[in-house]
Amino acid sequence: MKAPLRIALLAHVRQRIAAPFMGGMESHSWYLAEGLQARGHEVVLFAAGDSDPRFAIDPVVPEHYERTFPWAEHRGSAPLIAHLDAGYAAACDRIAAGGFDVVHNNSLHRFAIEPRRTALVPTVTSLHVPPYDALHWFVRASATPGHRLTVTSARQMAAWWPEGAPARASVLHNGIDPAAWPFTPAGDGSAVWCGRITPNKGTHLAIDAGRAAGVPLTLFGQIEDPDYWAAEVAPRLGGAIRYGGHLDGAALAAELGRASVFLFTPCWDEPFGLVAIEAMACGLPVAAFDRGAAREVIGEAGCFAAPDDAAGLAIAIGAALAIPRTVARGRVERLFTRDRWLDGCEALYAAARTDAAMAAAA
Question: Considering the entire predicted model, what is its pTM?
């Protein structure tokens, strides 16, 4: 058994780290904290103060910032930036003084990857996004011996480093607990979609494809963009197309298991697509836009259409329905389990600590 570590898990603070999850980043941090604790590590979650109280929380900000600074109003604004900078600066200082063996950085904030900070505590940074300008150059300037970088797919790796990735960067696929997403051997012929309801998730295109394919479709997820919902989603509902709400994991797993095909409709270069493997674990083949890492993640468990092509996706729905449900489940069990993911995390922690110790000795 590996020696337990004292781990600082630094999270994004736009939303609570608590179920029901707003998106993949919140889910990633929650399951990482839970999984590491189950393996005997001491985990302190640096997150919004209103996150799940089952964890030891050291608040970066008192409450998730969407409550104080709604994203649609304050994205990129000076008050929001100042609020986050103050919170993360203080949190990083507490981590440096806290006797931690390693930091797992899920924050997407530049302070956590400054070389002066990663030189103090070995750090593993998970990059959940494409290389947008606000973070890109800070990542490129973040090299220290004790800092490891991970991305969630080979497609994301190529986006961050088209010239070739540095030695301390690697692909670590996300993972889920298959037991939390139980396999159902048969569906009812319907389609399902879930995710944040916002333009870059393509909810309206899933509706158009489902209607064109003639299959009932249920949508699940948080309405993140009310204007988009009112203009593009709500008018398309009706008949066999319905909205089922924002559900927690167990309830969502039950709904997924009842369906026969999952629709995955990213309108941006999605680096992974956690919702796809959750559906696949329940036995659902996937009809997807061939964008971002979709093909890398879904593989033989899906059929693909060109990006933004609702008519093509309708054809893919019919083809995906012929894929055996065991194929989808088997791909998750082979490639995307939580144990495989946590093994990868622990290996990265060991490598970062070894590199930092060797640098200190030199």
Answer: 0.91
